[in-house]
């Protein structure tokens, strides 16, 4: 059965802290892994990863994929209250272009 | 403005009363998809469409129908809604895997 597991389920940190969110997957015919941010509304796209070991970076956010160990991490440095959200990991399967989402990590950043 | 729109945004209905949730995108995307989001279960794919007249089942298709007669529209049809279909529904369209989500439709079936 295809599945995506995110950890931790929730996280509370103080502004300025660095956080690491984890996503592991077991998906047949892996095609890509995507990270989204959801702030009480529709998810918004952050990163798409297809190759192992190549870091994607956008400001204070970065992500990397390990296709051998079947996981990805999302790092957020110098967290701000605006980073408070649910972070979703999704994996696309090559056959049929289906997407499998994890249940998300809820991040709360305290001032 | 590039966007995915859904209507209605909120709907309360009763068991068995057929309903349609519309989804439209103005980005000329070929791929469109429907998801439901439930606490503790995350986003689960209901149906997706690779192009006009091409649709396929996702993880949880039971109780739902879709159609793709035009590229921009991808309505979700519940022929006989039941309380277990109470959920938050998202439509999405995508270009090279980057999915753009609609604002969501919160459906309650009594």
Largest interface: A-B, 22 and 23 residues
- Helical content of chain B, roughly? under 10%
Overall geometry of chain B comes to globular
Total helices of chain B: the number is: 0
Cα radius of gyration of chain A in angstroms: 13 Å
Helix/sheet category of chain A: mainly beta
Order of helices and strands of chain B: EEEEEEEEEEE
Quote the distance from N terminus to C terminus of chain B: 36 Å
Q: State mean pLDDT of chain B (0 to 100 scale).
A: 95
Alpha carbon gyration radius of chain B: 13 Å
What's the multimeric state?
Answer: heterodimer
Biggest sheet descriptor of chain A? 6 strands, mixed
Kindly estimate the percentage of residues of chain B that lie in beta strands according to DSSP.
over 45%
Enumerate the spans of chain B where pLDDT stays under 50 for 5 or more consecutive residues. Answer: none
pLDDT average of chain A, as an integer?
93
Q: What's the count of strands of chain A?
A: 11
How would you describe this structure to a colleague?
The complex is a heterodimer of chains A (111) and B (110). Chain A has 111 residues and is an all-beta fold. In chain A, 0% of the residues lie in helices and 59% in strands. Chain A contains no helices and 11 strands. In chain A, the strands form 2 sheets. In chain A, strands 2, 4, 5, 9, 10 and 11 form a 6-stranded mixed sheet that branches. A 5-stranded antiparallel sheet of chain A has the order 1-3-8-7-6, with no helix packed on it. Chain A is globular and about 45 Å long. The N and C termini of chain A lie far apart (41 Å). Chain B has 110 residues and is mostly beta strands. Chain B has strands at 4-7, 10-13, 19-25, 31-38, 42-51, 54-57, 65-66, 76-78, 87-95, 98-101, 105-109. Chain B is globular, with a radius of gyration of 13 Å. The mean pLDDT of chain B is 95. The chains are: A mainly beta (111), B mainly beta (110). At the A-B interface, strand 4, strand 5, strand 9 and strand 10 of A face strand 4, strand 5 and strand 10 of B.
């Amino acid at each position: 059965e295809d599945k995506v597991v995110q950890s931790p389920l929730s996280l509370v940190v103080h502004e300025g802290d660095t956080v690491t969110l984890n996503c592991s997957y077991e998906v047949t015919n892996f095609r890509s892994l995507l990270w989204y941010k959801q702030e009480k509304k529709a998810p918004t796209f952050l990163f798409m990863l297809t190759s192992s070991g190549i870091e994607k970076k956008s400001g204070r956010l970065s992500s990397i994929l390990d296709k051998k160990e079947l996981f990805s991490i999302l790092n957020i440095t110098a967290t701000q209250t605006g980073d408070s959200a649910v972070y979703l990991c999704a994996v696309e399967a090559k056959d049929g272009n289906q997407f499998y989402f994890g249940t998300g990590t809820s991040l709360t950043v305290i001032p | 403005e590039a966007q995915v729109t859904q209507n209605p945004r909120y709907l309360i209905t009763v068991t068995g009363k057929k309903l349609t949730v519309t989804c439209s995108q103005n980005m000329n995307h070929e791929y469109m998809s429907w998801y439901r989001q439930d606490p503790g279960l995350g986003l689960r794919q209901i149906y997706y469409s690779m192009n006009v007249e091409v649709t396929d089942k996702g993880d949880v298709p039971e109780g739902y129908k879709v159609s793709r007669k035009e590229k921009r529209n991808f309505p979700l049809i519940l022929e006989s809604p039941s309380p277990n279909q109470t959920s938050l529904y998202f439509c999405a369209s995508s270009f090279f895997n980057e999915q753009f989500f609609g604002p969501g439709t919160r459906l309650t079936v009594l």
